[in-house]
Amino acid sequence: MNFDLEQTDELLSTTRAVRKRLDMERDVPDDLLMRCIELAEQAPSGGDISSRRWLVIRDQETKKQLAELYREAGGNGIIENAKANIAFGHPKKKVLESASHLAANLERVPVLVLATVWGTHDGSGKPGLFDSVIQSAWSFCLALRARGLGSAWTTMHLAKADETADLLGIPDGVSQIVLLPVAWTIGTDFKSANRRPASEIVWFDRWGYTKEQIKERTEKVESLIASGPGVTVEIDIAAPLSAVWKLVSDINISAKYSKEFQGAEWIDLDGPRLGASFRGKNKRTDVNREWETKSWVVEFDEPNVFAWNVNDRDNPSAKWRFELEKIPSGTRLRQ
Question: Is pLDDT at 305 greater than 90 in this prediction?
Answer without folding.
Answer: yes
